[in-house]
Amino acid sequence: MSTASEFHAVSVGEEHLSLPAVLAVAKYAGHTEFLQVAIEAALIRRAARELGIVAAAAELQEAGNTFRAERKLYAATDAQAWLAMRHLTTAEWQAGLELDVLTRRVRDEVTEKKIEPHFAQHLLTFEYVTVSHLLVQDENLARELMAQIDEDGADFHALARQYSIDAATRPASGYLGIVRRGELTPAAQAAVFGARVGAVVGPFETRAGWRIIKVESVHPAKLDETTRDEIKSTLFAEWLKAQRENTRIQAPLLDLR
After folding, report:
1. Mind giving me the DSSP string for the chain?
2. Is-contact 201 191, C-beta < 8 A?
3. CATH architecture assigned to 128-219
4. Are 257 and 26 in contact (CB under 8 A)?
5. How far apart are CA 138 and CA 10, in angstroms?
6. CATH 3.10.50.40: which residues of the chain?
7. Does the predicted model carry a pTM greater than 0.85?
8. Burial letters for 184-212: b for 16+ Cβ neighbours within 10 Å, e otherwise?
9. Residue 23 contacts by C-beta under 8 Å, 6 or more apart in sequence?
10. How many CB atoms lie within 10 A of CB 11?
């Protein structure tokens, strides 16, 4: 039987790379994420066993249908070609579907009772506004433009089209879209989230220059399905981190020579 150093993991032209050689490249580049994925999968399977969670046949069927639809694998030949391209057997694909179902079920189980307390504790985090902004490099110009808006009633969007150095938003009259509290500096947070709709506030110093912001709409925090899913993702990531930290994990694969 071949040893790990004799086994050809990859062949590139005339060069044959052993498994330890491939791992050495991955370790040097810091690309061993596949091990973290495998570790998380093991932690999820263990939790499923402890919680008595089993993937039912109907769930696996639904997961398979969703998987194929998302990848437009409508014909059996398309699915087989997709598996072949990734060197996956049908059994390995089915095991992946089972893991997807278990992950969803475990995620729901370990986070459900924590969602509302988390939302209440971090209420301000889930408030957001839609804004337009005007960015210039010079502070004096920013203050002059702000004065034109405040004192002369100058049109913010026209000024954004004329003066803003943000090439991504200037053609749209400065429209930036949804902004969460955490995306703003403390000073901008206080001004923006304390302003009425239509108000223009600033200027605020940023790494890119001086910023004037127009509040287009305000959206109070709401525990809707989107927010629930976002909180679930956060809580599940925290749960996985705690599981890793409290479980003895070894990776002999990385020590192959």
Report:
1. ---TTTSEEEEETTEEEEHHHHHHHHHHHT--HHHHHHHHHHHHHHHHHHHT----HHHHHHHHHHHHHHTT--SHHHHHHHHHHTT--HHHHHHHHHHHHHHHHHHHHHHGGGHHHHHHHTGGGG-EEEEEEEEES-HHHHHHHHHHHHHH---HHHHHHHH---TTTGGGTTEEEEEEGGGS-HHHHHHHHTSPTT-EEEEEEETTEEEEEEEEEEE-----HHHHHHHHHHHHHHHHHHHHHTS----GGGG--
2. yes
3. Roll (3.10)
4. no
5. 55
6. 128-219
7. no
8. beeebbebbbebeeeebbbbbeeeebbbb
9. 253, 254, 256
10. 9
Partnered with residue 219 across adjacent β-strands are: 128
Q: How far is the C-alpha of 143 from the C-alpha of 145, rounded, in Å? A: 5
Please report, in tens digits, the pLDDT of each residue of the chain (257 residues total): 556 666 788 898 989 898 889 899 999 999 999 999 999 999 999 999 999 999 999 999 999 999 999 999 999 999 999 999 999 999 999 999 999 999 999 999 999 999 999 999 999 889 999 999 999 999 999 999 999 999 999 999 999 999 999 999 999 999 999 999 888 888 999 999 999 999 999 999 999 899 999 999 999 999 999 999 999 999 999 999 999 999 999 988 888 87
